[in-house]
Amino acid sequence: MIGKFITVEGTEGAGKSTAMRFIEEYLSPTFPLVLTREPGGTKLAEAIRHLLLHAKETERVAPMTELLLMFAARAQHIHHLIKPSLQAGKWVVSDRYIDATYAYQVGGRELNLETISLFDKQVVGDVYPDLTILLDIPAELGMQRTEKRGGEKDRIEQEQISFFDRVRTTYLERAKADPKRMKVIDASLDLTKVQAQLHAVLDEFIKSQSL
Ligand code: Z5A
Q1: CA 96–ligand 1 middle distance (angstroms)
Q2: Each residue of 34-43: pLDDT tens digit?
Q3: d(CA 210, ligand 1 centre) in Å
Q4: Cβ neighbours of residue 14 under 8 Å, at least 6 residues apart?
Q5: Homologous superfamily of domain range 5-209
């Protein structure tokens, strides 16, 4: 792969969308960027996203169905967008990716880790992020932020606080296990301080690429 792959992760309301805008502003003058998100990023993957987040009205989504749909969307995303973009030398920045599956489906839903690792190997393979920015925030504060923002909660956002606590713990455990790739940012601070941390992480990453 020639381009670089950056992912942004965090629990609900951590500020990922806000961070994506900042990253775009910061990198786009220098690097050819493709901004995307998961679940989603292609037409079919966006249709799967809609099923995943708004299927409540039709029938309850079983945890294993949720997992398989996440990976189905990801397979499309990798094949049609991420891989070709990286091969064309673009920098791909994705709002969520594989770490979200470990955090939400292993941590949150308590699905089997080995099953997910197997799909990780088969579907993601070597299309792993070069840098993952984890926006860390206590679940309660993240929920307060999204409540303040307003709008209807999707199916996953309606989970209990204990679910989001497990999601956060799993994210932090993954970051601890892979500190070179995953950089943790304190997202509970005000926007200027969050942006300064993002700035520092991106600068360090760019510097490491040009060595
Ligand atoms: N999911 C999964 O289960 N498994 C997977 O493998 C994948 C995903 C890939 C969709 O994700 C759902 O899919 C998600 C996980 C699951 N479900 N949940 N929960 P999503 O990324 O589309 O949805 P989200 O996590 O719910 O994102 P969000 O609610 O839009 O939050 P956000 O993008 O992190 O936050 P934001 O919109 O940038 O900020 C929230 C508000 O806080 C907003 O009003 C901001 O202006 C404000 N804000 C942001 N930063 C700050 C600071 N620093 N201070 C004060 N206020 C701030």
Answers
A1: 9
A2: 999 999 999 9
A3: 31
A4: 135, 136, 137, 142, 187
A5: P-loop containing nucleotide triphosphate hydrolases (3.40.50.300)
